[in-house]
Design brief:
- The complex is a heterodimer of chains A (255) and B (186).
- Chain A has 255 residues and is an alpha+beta fold.
- Helix content of chain A is 51%, strand content 19%.
- In chain A, helix 1 crosses helix 2 and helix 1 runs parallel beside helix 3.
- Chain B has 186 residues and is an all-alpha fold.
- Chain B has eleven helices and no strands.
- The chains are: A alpha+beta (255), B mainly alpha (186).
- At the A-B interface, helix 1, helix 3 and helix 4 of A face helix 1, helix 2, helix 3, helix 7 and helix 8 of B.
């Protein structure tokens, strides 16, 4: 072992960091190398004076308190304000949204129909289907007359009620005729009105004790409907005309 | 996310090493006031990362954070400290101060001052390894982990640092009043 190599190992030896084999090699080298012995002694004395000088500097007394205070602040600021609170906020907000959706959904059903959605859908499908069927050639009317005094008597004997029949030509809704249809298992009167080149079917039947299964207005497959109650009758107008036109007709029928 | 258990863990594992943290910072920054600020920040940072600490050696883990904080601070506030190889002004000042110290002053205090100035005039890289070894009593492996340098480099850096200290201390061993000129040859 040359002295140059041992110089590097000297510090490892001094610090007790050499593995046993190298430590032994170094000790053997020391036996025959006085410069290395001198160097080792110098280093040991330097270490002793470093220890004696007590250079270790402890943290100031208040540091731990300061750290703990800052951590407490960090917890309140970043944790509770920015992490925990938003989580609760999100939960609360989500709950409110779900609640509102539920209220809207069930409330709308209750207000507009009072019956479960399935029946509502079924009833409205019948109305739409009947209207579509009526538009096929020869199905639109059973009694073709623009005269309300012809149409109204025509229903006599065919229904157990008398549907109100009005000619609304003056208002832009000329009466085309009437027909019988089946809705929800019973025969109902259908008045057919014209609106420019469109036809409007108005289903009329005596008002049931409970609320109707049909929403006030709606649209499906391009057809609009407008449901209303007046004079002890239920009216459901359906057509491909605009919702405004349907609304106007409904108002006229209720007069 | 921090939990109450994290705080307990921090106070049990990390806070007891605040002296080690402060001592390293003080010697790296050469200022007690700066060391206090940086140590405080480093410990708060350690608290934030406590969930990620799964090892057994909390002191080494903390000292890594402190060391990084010190270097970031120096980088920002005292860049020169990181490039200075040998701070002669500090050393010469020391000699001046040392000669001004009244003879009556305790020799031990004088000696401590001298050693302190000598250690402070070493380059930061040598100084931190010496402080970790001689003052903190870290093993080479721990020093290697804290400073992110290989163990072999730890040993050679220690050798260089100690030789530097020896050179700095040797001429001032006498209580001569010659001052600066005497020590020019250091």
């Amino acid at each position: 072992m040359t002295c140059e190599i041992s110089q590097a190992l000297l510090h490892g030896y001094l610090d007790g960091e050499l593995d046993p084999i190298r430590a032994e090699e170094f000790e053997r080298h020391l036996e025959s190398c006085s410069p290395c012995i001198a160097q080792l002694e110098e280093q040991e004395s330097l270490r002793a004076s470093l220890r004696a000088a007590k250079l270790y500097e402890r943290a100031p007394a208040g540091l731990a308190k300061k750290i703990q205070r800052q951590i407490a602040n960090t917890e309140t600021e970043s944790d509770y304000q920015w992490t925990w609170v938003p989580i609760f906020r999100w939960i609360a907000a989500s709950a409110v949204i779900v609640l509102l959706m539920a209220i809207t959904y069930f409330g709308a059903q209750r207000i507009l129909s009072g019956k479960p959605g399935v029946e509502q859908t079924a009833m409205m499908s019948e109305v739409i289907d009947a209207h579509v069927r009526s538009l096929q050639p020869g199905h639109l009317t059973d009694v073709l007359s623009t005269d309300q005094h012809t149409v109204k008597p025509w229903f006599n004997g065919k229904l157990d009620y008398v549907p109100p029949v009005k000619d609304l030509a003056e208002n832009g809704f000329p009466l085309v005729g009437g027909r019988l249809d089946v809705l929800d298992g019973r025969s109902v009167a259908v008045l057919v009105y014209g609106r420019r080149k469109h036809y409007i079917s108005v289903f009329v039947w005596p008002a049931a004790a409970n609320d109707s299964a049909i929403p006030a207005t709606g649209t499906r497959n391009g057809f609009q409907w407008n449901y209303s109650r007046a004079h002890g009758m239920e009216f459901c107008a359906i057509s491909d005309v605009s919702a405004t036109d349907l609304h106007d007709l409904a108002e006229l029928l209720q007069e | 996310m921090l939990e109450p258990a994290d705080r307990q863990r921090f106070e049990r594992l990390i806070l007891p090493h605040q002296d080690a943290a402060f001592n390293l910072a003080r010697w790296l920054l050469r200022s007690r006031a700066d060391a206090e600020d940086v140590t405080q920040d480093a410990l708060v940072r350690a608290f934030r990362f406590i969930a990620g600490f799964h090892g057994t050696d909390a002191r080494t883990w903390l000292l890594q954070i402190v060391r990084n904080a010190c270097y970031s601070w120096l980088e920002k506030n005292r860049r020169a400290d990181l490039t200075t190889e040998f701070d002669e002004t500090v050393h010469l000042q020391t000699q001046g101060q040392a000669t001004q110290t009244p003879e009556a002053a305790a020799v031990a205090s004088n000696e401590r001052e001298r050693l302190m100035r000598a250690l402070e005039s070493l380059p930061a890289r040598s100084r931190e390894v010496l402080v970790l070894r001689e003052l903190e009593g870290c093993s080479y492996k721990e020093i290697a982990t804290i400073t992110s340098i290989p163990i072999g480099t730890v040993m050679s850096t220690l050798a260089r640092g100690r030789d530097g200290l020896k050179r700095l201390l040797r001429p001032a061993s006498g209580t001569d009043a010659g001052g600066k000129e005497v020590h020019r040859d250091v």
